[in-house]
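Final report, closing paragraph on structural work. Over the funding period we assembled a curated collection of sequence-structure pairs, and we close with a single example.
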Amino acid sequence: MSEKISSVKGAAALRGPLNEPPADAAAEAGLRPPTFGDFTGQAKTVERLRVMVGAAKARGEALNHVLLSGPPGLGKTTLAFILGHEMGRKVRVTSGPVIEKAGDLAGLLTNLAEGDILFIDEIHRLAKTVEEYLYSAMEDFRIDILIDQGPNARSVRLTIPRFTLVGATTRTGLLTAPLRSRFTLQSRLDYYSREDLVKIVRRSGRLLKMDLAEEAAQVIATRARGTPRIVNNLLHFVRDYAQQRSAGRVTAAAAEAALELLEIDKAGLDEMDKRILRVMAHNHGGGPVGVNTIAVAVGEEEHTLEEVHEPFLIQEGYLARTAQGRVLTAKGWQAAGVPPPANVAGGQGELL
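Its predicted structure, as stored:
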């Protein structure tokens, strides 16, 4: 509740042990790169943002609005804070579901200073009524609020400082065209290469003051599913494991043992990934099968499967998405530990 109040009213966070950020959130924030120079990967997006920041600073103006899209954990929030650092402005953070009505949005916007950055995570989940108020705020830097109802209703126009809206979304398709068109820059973040992930492991290891072997960095990067957030999560557990089981020294063997304890194999597949593949192989003959059916069978939310597990499985060639449903590829059958049927050719079963 305190988080919602601080987001809506734009006030400083309350002090005290009950309102301190969770330890995991604080640890993740401590590993975030503060500048473009410290940021690894996403070269095209970073270069576009550098151009915008340089031009805005040269003109002495607020940065234009930016929309960042892509799967979770790739650095959308980090880039928003880097923009604030590079522009020398504060970043106010909220999320789409928190802004329930126009008054909430008005409270956020009127508490911004000139040039500040408002970061809205999961912006595709904004209420439609709130979204319509955002149009005039982004274009004309004003907002018209309706007060009272019936015969006493009246409109009040609020002028707001020139601000920068940075929106983040995992599902660009759910954004309405009017909102999407109001962002000057729309940039998608992609999964990271293994080389970039190794660099992130090294940097995070130094910040955590770990005795990290180069081979261990390779092991962790290989199993991180192309995602920096997963890299840092694995790194924290590997550090704990090494502290308890290998005198603090993170060797390749220690890293592999720690990740095996987490049930993450050498291909980066976790237990839920394997369960999905096994259910499709044993219960549905490799598909096609709908994602809602898979979700019920494995006991997981459909949204989680679509946002967390399915992108990796499709990208790595374990699954294929068809009009009839999801189907196992030859690689998926192998990972499930089941011999593929004779009709699986070229990595995908015959659908008809």
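The longest helix spans residues 228-245. DSSP finds 15 helices and 13 strands in the chain. We thank the funder for supporting this effort.
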